[in-house]
Design brief:
The complex is a heterodimer.
Chain A lengths: L1 E6 L5 E7 L2 E8 L4 H15 L9 E5 L5 H18 L2 E5 L1 H11 L4 E8 L5 E8 L3 E3 L4 E3 L1 H8 L5 E4 L1 H5 L1 H4 L5 E4 L6 H10 L15 H12 L1
Parallel strand pairs in A: 1-4, 4-5, 6-10, 10-11
Antiparallel strand pairs in A: 1-2, 2-3, 6-7, 7-8, 7-9
Helix pairs in contact in A: 1-2, 3-7
Chain B lengths: L1 E6 L4 E8 L4 E8 L1 H4 L7 H22 L11 E7 L3 H18 L3 E5 H12 L7 E6 L4 E8 L2 E7 L5 H11 L6 H9 L23 H13 L5 H26 L4 E5 L6 H14 L3 E2 L3 H4 L4 H14 L19
Parallel strand pairs in B: 1-4, 4-5, 6-9, 9-10
Antiparallel strand pairs in B: 1-2, 2-3, 6-7, 7-8
The chains are: A alpha/beta, B alpha/beta.
Bound molecules: zinc ion.
Zinc ion binds next to α4 of chain B.
Amino acid sequence: MTVLLIETATTTCGVGLMVDGNCEGVIVDRNRNHTEFLTDGIEKILTAHGLTPRDLTRVVVDRGPGLYTGLRVGIASAIGLAKGLGVDLVGVTSLEILARGALDAGIRGELIALIDGRRGEVFAQHFTLRDTIHPVADPIVVRPQDVATAVESWSSVHLWGDGVLRYLDVFEGLTNAVLNPLEIPPLEAGLRLGVEGTPVDVVTPLYLRDPDAVANFTTREQQS
Amino acid sequence: MKVLGIETSCDETAASVVDDELHVHSSVIESSLDEHRAFGGVVPELAGRAHVMMIASVVERALVEAGLDPRNPDIDAVAVTSGPGLIGSLLVGLSAAKGYALAWGKPFVGVHHLEGHLFAPLLEMPDLPWPMLTLLVSGGHSMLVLQHGPGSHEILGETIDDAAGEAYDKVARWLGLGYPGGPEIDKLAQSGDAKALQLPKSMTGDGYDLSFSGLKTAVVRATEKQGGLAVEDVAASFQGAVAEQLLRKVRQALEKNEVKALSLAGGVAANSALRRGITELGDEFGIPALLPSMKMCTDNAAMIAAAGVYRFQHQGASPMNLSANPNWQLADLS
Ligand SMILES: [Zn+2]
C-alpha cells in the first residue's frame, strides 16, 4: 500500500507518505498558507520517493477538529486527489492521531488530546492508552482552564497537541501532567491510523461547533 | 480542447465540461440556497460546509454526463474560480481543482468569476458581433462592461455601494418577503402600480457608475411616511426605479460607444423589467440583444470553463501555489 496523508487541522500544514510500511512526514508550511503550499508539498514528497500520484493506493486526511478553513483546504484537496485517482479515501480525526502518536511513543494511561479551537477554547478528547487507544468520551469544545481543573485530581495524565502549545500557561502548573506541546498531530501516526481506517465516499469534517449564524438563530428561536 | 470548470464562489457548487468552440458538454449545479433562506442571506460558513459535501459528486456527474472517465478524463485543463467570492467557499473549489489536476497530471487554471459571467452569453450565442455592451447584475456585482472581444473588457461603470441584487434583498427583507428578494419583488411588481411611490432618480450625471443604497433608503422612508401602501405597489415602484437607472445607463453607453451587440449577465438578469427594457433598447438601436437563459445567468461552471479555455489558450496554466483572492477586481485582470 502506498498512502498519502494530508494534515491541515492546525496552523501548520504537513504531508506524510507511507511506502512499503515505511513512514515519512514533512512539514510544508507553518503560517496558515495551506492553500499555497499543500499541493507543492504533495508533489515534492512523491518525487523524493520516485513516485507519481498514480502510484498512490490510498489518501488519508485529518478531518478535524481544527481550523475550519485549513480543514476544508485539506479535505477538498484529498477529495480531488482520491476521486481523481479512483483510490480509497479515509478520514481520521486530529484527536485520534494525537492519541495514536502517544501510543506509538510507548505512552500508556490517561491522555487528553487537545487541538486549539480559537476563541479561548480547545477541542479535547479523553483517551485511555493500553495495547490500543480507547476513547473514554466523545470530542468536545471546552475552555482550557476547565480541562486543567478536571484533570487536577488525577494521579497522572498526558496532555498532547497544539492546544497544549497554545495554552502552555494554563497547563504548566499541573504537577501530575506530562505535556507534549506539538504544533501538528504526528504525521507518522496519522498514516498508521489511516492505513487501518475504513474508506468512505465523502470525508465529513468534524467541526464540533455550529456556524455562528445558526447558533445565534437557534438561541433567538429558543428565547422567543 | 476540453476544459473542466469548477465554481464554488458563493452558494452554488458547480462543475462543467466545455470545449474550445464553447460547446457545453455538461453543466451540473447544486445549491445550498435552502439552508440560507432562514437567515435572509448567504451564511458563509454554511456555504463552505455545503461545498465540501457536494464537490465530489458534482464533479463526477459533470464528467460522466460529458461522456468522460472520472478517473482519467480526456480533458486539457482544470479551470476553477479563484476569486472574487467568499473565501471559505472559494478555497473548497480551488483545493479540489488542484487535487484533480494533480491526480490526472493536467494543467490547472484560476479564473475570475466575473470574467466567467462575461463569457456566459457566448455559450448560447457564440457568433455575437463585437464590440458588445454587457450589463452584469447579480447579488454581488453590478457593472456595465464594454467587451471588445473575448477576454478583452473595459468597465464603463459599476456600483459605488450595493449591488442591484443586494438592494432587492434588503428591500424584500424590509417588506417582510423571503430571500432571495429578486424573484419575490419581481412577482409582486407585476400587479402593482409603479407610480404609487415617488422615488428619487439616482446617478443622473454623464458617468456610468451605479448606486442602489439610496433607493433602498428612500423605499424605507416613503413606506414609513405613507402607511398602508400595498406591497405590490412598493415592489413595482422599487423595481421600476432600479430598472430605470440601469436602462438609462445602458442607453447612455449605447449612445456614446460604437456597439454591435447588447447582452445581460448575472442573476438579476432574470428580472422581467430588465429583460423587457434590454430587448427594447436592442430594437431601438438596431443591434442584437441577447438575453441568456436563466441557467447561464446565475452562477454556473460552464461560464468558468469557457473563461478557463480562453485564459489557458492565452496565458497558459496557473501556478499550483495559486491562492484564492476574495477581492479580486475585474479591472486588475490583464
Ligand atoms: Zn456570480
